[in-house]
Amino acid sequence: MKIKCESIIQNDSLQEECAVFGIWNHPNASEITYLGLYALQHRGQEASGIVSSDGNTFYIHKNVGLVADVYKPHILATLKGYHAVGHNRYSTTGASNINNVQPLFSVGKDGPICIAHNGNLVNAKELRDELAKMGALFQTTTDTEVVLHLLARTIGNWKERFKQVAEKIIGAYTLILMTKNELIGIRDPNGIRPLVLGKLNDSFVLASESCAFDLIGAEYIRAIDAGEIIIINAKGLHSEYFANVRKTTPCIFELIYFSRPDSQMFNESIDRTRREMGKQLALESPANADFVISVPDSSNAAALGYAQTLGIPYEHGLIRNHYVGRTFINPTTELRKAGVKIKFNPVATLVKEKRIIVVEDSIVRGTTLKQLTKLLRSAGAREIHVRVASSPIYFPCPYGMDFPTKEELIANHYSIEGIRKEIGADSLAYLSYEGMVSACPDYNGGYCTACFNGVYPLNYESYSGKFSLE
Amino acid sequence: MKIKCESIIQNDSLQEECAVFGIWNHPNASEITYLGLYALQHRGQEASGIVSSDGNTFYIHKNVGLVADVYKPHILATLKGYHAVGHNRYSTTGASNINNVQPLFSVGKDGPICIAHNGNLVNAKELRDELAKMGALFQTTTDTEVVLHLLARTIGNWKERFKQVAEKIIGAYTLILMTKNELIGIRDPNGIRPLVLGKLNDSFVLASESCAFDLIGAEYIRAIDAGEIIIINAKGLHSEYFANVRKTTPCIFELIYFSRPDSQMFNESIDRTRREMGKQLALESPANADFVISVPDSSNAAALGYAQTLGIPYEHGLIRNHYVGRTFINPTTELRKAGVKIKFNPVATLVKEKRIIVVEDSIVRGTTLKQLTKLLRSAGAREIHVRVASSPIYFPCPYGMDFPTKEELIANHYSIEGIRKEIGADSLAYLSYEGMVSACPDYNGGYCTACFNGVYPLNYESYSGKFSLE
Amino acid sequence: MKIKCESIIQNDSLQEECAVFGIWNHPNASEITYLGLYALQHRGQEASGIVSSDGNTFYIHKNVGLVADVYKPHILATLKGYHAVGHNRYSTTGASNINNVQPLFSVGKDGPICIAHNGNLVNAKELRDELAKMGALFQTTTDTEVVLHLLARTIGNWKERFKQVAEKIIGAYTLILMTKNELIGIRDPNGIRPLVLGKLNDSFVLASESCAFDLIGAEYIRAIDAGEIIIINAKGLHSEYFANVRKTTPCIFELIYFSRPDSQMFNESIDRTRREMGKQLALESPANADFVISVPDSSNAAALGYAQTLGIPYEHGLIRNHYVGRTFINPTTELRKAGVKIKFNPVATLVKEKRIIVVEDSIVRGTTLKQLTKLLRSAGAREIHVRVASSPIYFPCPYGMDFPTKEELIANHYSIEGIRKEIGADSLAYLSYEGMVSACPDYNGGYCTACFNGVYPLNYESYSGKFSLE
Amino acid sequence: MKIKCESIIQNDSLQEECAVFGIWNHPNASEITYLGLYALQHRGQEASGIVSSDGNTFYIHKNVGLVADVYKPHILATLKGYHAVGHNRYSTTGASNINNVQPLFSVGKDGPICIAHNGNLVNAKELRDELAKMGALFQTTTDTEVVLHLLARTIGNWKERFKQVAEKIIGAYTLILMTKNELIGIRDPNGIRPLVLGKLNDSFVLASESCAFDLIGAEYIRAIDAGEIIIINAKGLHSEYFANVRKTTPCIFELIYFSRPDSQMFNESIDRTRREMGKQLALESPANADFVISVPDSSNAAALGYAQTLGIPYEHGLIRNHYVGRTFINPTTELRKAGVKIKFNPVATLVKEKRIIVVEDSIVRGTTLKQLTKLLRSAGAREIHVRVASSPIYFPCPYGMDFPTKEELIANHYSIEGIRKEIGADSLAYLSYEGMVSACPDYNGGYCTACFNGVYPLNYESYSGKFSLE
Hints:
The structure is a homotetramer. The first copy, chain A, has 15 helices and 22 strands. By secondary structure, chain A is of the alpha+beta class. The first copy, chain A, folds into 2 domains: 18-248, Aminohydrolase, N-terminal nucleophile (Ntn) domain (Glutamine Phosphoribosylpyrophosphate, subunit 1, domain 1), CATH 3.60.20; 270-320 and 336-442, 3-Layer(aba) Sandwich (Rossmann fold). In chain A, the strands form 5 sheets. A 7-stranded antiparallel β-sheet of chain A has the order 3-2-4-1-10-9-11. In chain A, strand 7 and strand 8 form a beta hairpin. The longest helix of chain A has 15 residues, at 270-284. The two termini of chain A are 18 Å apart. Residues 1-15, 92-96 and 461-470 of chain A have low confidence and may be disordered. At the A-C interface, helix 1, helix 2, helix 7, strand 15 and helix 10 of A face helix 1, helix 2, helix 7, strand 15 and helix 10 of C.
């Protein structure tokens, strides 16, 4: 049960968060959940779990590793039944403990119940202490278990019960629960993390992103609303609101980086939004160069938007090694310089003697870009102009993004000019805050942009760093 | 997390139960616990777990399999700290679920706590339902988790708190608990399952049987009393009684079969007690034969006692294959006759044409003996006289022995003469109930002999079969 | 040792072949070889092996799986010494047998010797039979073992000995051998498979492609010539020619598909050559559409070249799931339609109602393209114009490309118009043979284009299908 | 492929050697071979392999570990066909390399052939060098591979061919070979290692010992003769002699220690022979004591014979932990004193204050006995009289017994009195050489007693220590 994973390279990207998936009433429930988790692999590569049910018995399998490694045919065969909930997990929060791998499963007054969670509760520690005083026993170190314990102390129908829970918990939470009789989908009153509803023949499906529906051939119906609770059971689908929606503020970083470009949000593909960000960036901060390259694949769309807007050629200047797994043997001292090259290699004949615009989606610590510019220069690049398709990140995220502390964010240490020097670029420009927001789909609501401007929508202002239950 | 173990052969023996081990304040705590569990392997071969602690952080490792397979050097290295609790488990009660492997670990108002249990609670289901109504969430299907939840609802010092728990739970329980600050040993008010105290230099150790002390070089101090709670912490060892001892009734089957012959009980080695049973059996039911053989190794001592008393030679007539593991590929139909031969093979040249007395420790379903007599006859044995060093078993055990139901016990289906026919012996005799009890050490208390005479010491008379939480 | 890998999806692409890597005289020999194999992972994902040596003892590790899975820190630690040879293997030729995983190792009159091979011998079966008659024992089913047996029957210096071997073997072979005293690199007289030489400080390195040098920070020196033998030992590097070069005919498919775009060939990056093919394709077969997309990542460069030439926007229309591993649970019947979607998902909002040009690098069976057009149409594409950046493939390859038989090649079943219908495109055009060859670097030699025109450079004309030793 | 097994305890016993098994023409060939290897597990616990055949295709599985671990149902299912050969291996001779695990398999002029070997060739190194000069390539470091290479260089029928091989090889060899058309059993001209023939319905079986027949329900027919070759094929069984039997000299240590007591040799069970040795020992060196104990289970029979002869009670004074596996975590310094206690624990109440006779089967290094006497003394034994049921061992064994060098044999360092002091016994006596031989079955031949008297039956007198190919 001890797990030790050496991280590949000091990754500057935001660590992905979590994926949830659920299906009710399908003869291949666990198989479909497997495919759904597969399509959502980009949201969490640390561990995966599926709980299936035939309405009576629950079947569980979970383990650390990629979806393709965790499930094998003989394993899927044991996950019987017509209903299933799945989860991919990034975070290693808590002791690296298989108990922490979701979905969590427990038996209480409601009988067996399982839960899968994407997001983060800001006041989990306080709630744990409070619940412990009342006799609750915690067998994981996840904030998710808090929800189970709170639920076990409520009465009424599910909407009423969840309303009581929602009055206690503060944070971002997209939840899928499964009992003997129903599959329940919940999105927090701010709608910070995504959750979408689909239909596969006669079965309803819930997923973090619509790209999961594409793979299983399900029809996309709509996004679950902020504050909405969806109950799927033998009688069909039932929707209610367990909370007065304060202000819908979905995480803008889902658009910038997290979600897959082929997923939809607000009737718009993520790809289109990122293209828009690239376009806006081009208008705000054009550059003169021989061509534009992306840092594949996360900034592909933004780079293309940037290049097309300015009429500068778009090129594949960095080749990505797609066999980079979760674990990689860290080279010994002399070979550490391999560094980012394990993931990216420049096409030397292309970049040689050229003036290049590198479009990146965001800068967190700045370490990857620093290595990349070095790599490009040693391949002969004459000029490197970095353009970032989002604004500088100044604040940590308490809502489920595995962000570094304030101290680790490069924007808190340098001016833009200082960052430019630090990463070794010839010029550097970020997308303006206004430009970034304006590139996002306009719907009757706003976005959580706390990491950019420090405005935490949940008024939990004291938050000042990495959240931990331990 | 799905575990499927094919059982070796339809085993007539009683399935072993569980082993507990604990040590406080030793630089090699987890290593010593490993050795202790190793010496106690005979009490449980299904799964094993160790929780260690440095007084602050807890380290956990558990898995299905034998002690030698579950722990490897790199695993033991992760089990840091000065204190440790270990558990070997037989029972697959509950969904085969690694969550069920003990020690259980949870965090509640007492902070982190772990528990290892040998025994069985008779009223666990009722208590679970009651606790669930109060909001308790169960993440295992063990009765042990009930104790954790009850404890979390008590106040006072450990003695007082455990007194409150003891008022609720009915059954057999030898428990070792560990918190940040203490190691706690508990034996139920009837003292059904054993627990002994030892000392290794400056460290106190607790174990199911004294043979664990021999291996680690610890000094045997004494048995924990029925109803006693031992608290070991920085201040030393503190003993109290949390219950008025109703009537001490240790399980007589520990003497007949469970415990290792080199362990001590009531200042007597188990070996001596079994020898005494064999002797008594010889006096009650002598037989005329060329020699006496045992069913190795469980009836070695009784067979020797029987042979010596009558002056008949003792021989090694059955060779046991010691490489029989927990899992064995069941042969296809044609080869099923391999059956018990996978475990035992008669020495043909020895048994040929001979009159043999087979001394067995007990008969449960009768299947093994039936196969053995067939095996001996086909090897040429002329006469087979079976002598059983305990009385006929008529009643199931609710106190932790993995016993079959009434229906499966052969003694409920046939008279002694009928059993003789069924197993194919030329003669059959059991040790009388009185003879059996008289062979056990005489101390100021009695024994639980419920499986022989149906007198359940805990007045839980409604009990009628295999206990299950599911 | 039995290995069963279910293939991901019915893959239309050419199966990759093999990678070889060798280093002499470096304190981190096995670690560097690991990195080199990592960079060459695209040439073989079935299995990997490293043999290292301290000049006296040889250390071996090989297993099926990806490089990142086959080697772990404790494994690399056992691969001691200063010299190493590594191999990545695609082919499952032969019984799936770990013995077949290269490098092969044997001990004969030359002492210990190991060999890594990329290519394929056309007359391996005849040679095996002949050698067997002379008493040779084969413990693998690889053609590579034939080389070892032949070598063991030669005398003289390495050049002379290999000359004798080269007189016997017909086919494509890039070989790296290692003995106690030297590292030997060999490229067949036609130079069909690539092999390049580099320098890392004082150590010489050999690799299938130059991208391996980029990762380890080695300097690219030059390609090994056709018919050249390079001997690296304590005295340095020594080059000779063991064969009169008939006609240098490197495999044109290395340029079209196999090699990584950031690798160099004939002083030109593969990326540039593919761009040139796309450009040529645009000139020959322009199309009118809203944008151009590639089938990521193999046709990225050609698609970009095509788009830039015609001034049509280039878009990322297909999102590739990078977590597709070697094994994937094949969905049950109902879910088989998942098919190619496991690997690619169209960006629906982008392709909807649009006229699209799909640039593919080559068409083998046509199955992937057929699925892709269906996928794009169901995402709303209005027109789909397929452009292929190479010529139609009519002939199988006996030189190491894991090609289907004549019967499986779609071009042998349909006219171009027939293929268009079969794959469901609105228009289809291939690059002309002349255009394809003209896009390749012009050096003083030609290319093997046997799969396109049936001109087998080794005059082994009887060849008519998949080669197999069994 | 690197294997590292920490040995349990410094084992004084002789390391077991190897087991061979073969069956021809049975629908459950691999399953029966599995059971046969299981029954022969005591002859080799390091690794195991089975090769099966349907007369056309060969199926192979081999791995390190115990039989019960190496084969699982899904593995056995892949070992198809009607014929099979199996092997259990002790020795780690050669680089710990899965290639070395037998049966070896190769393809040469005879087509596919596999071989399983028990024994040791004394002149393997010379033959390897000679064969290598002729172009042979060795892919294992076993002496067994030499036989394959020699065979590949012979012509004629199997008898003639093996006669040619036998003229070259010197040593002990019991071989089972399998080709497409026959199963071949061979025993060397001295008959040093055992091989027996049985019948299971219409199928012939070959095994190292008859106990394998008992488990699978086969009928014992006879032992293969020294110098005999048995050919089993579609026409039935054919026996010939490939060698003039010099002098039949089966290994006396098979009787003393190696073989299972329930196996037969010379129409006598091993158990009876060992009993006879104990009886002879009692007559030669009686002792006065309270009781006799054995070192379970290897000296059980001898101890019983000793006790019965003198009329002294036989007791179970040492309890053996049967869960001791091949690997055991070596305790840290402080805990090393656990030592032999991991395997044996004295029954303290039995041995306390008693005068004990310990009967051991043999003494090699003396380390186990030294630890055991210490253990018994600390358990309170008053007198310890050691009696050894064989003679002092002075010479190493070149014929397959994994014996220490001369230097490691305690008898080469001390007189009997010196050994007594060294192991800490109150008295010590060995069985006389004459007594030992006279206890063995009297047949028209002798025994190899080279380890006792240095008379090597193969006149390979220069032999002076542990044999190694490396």
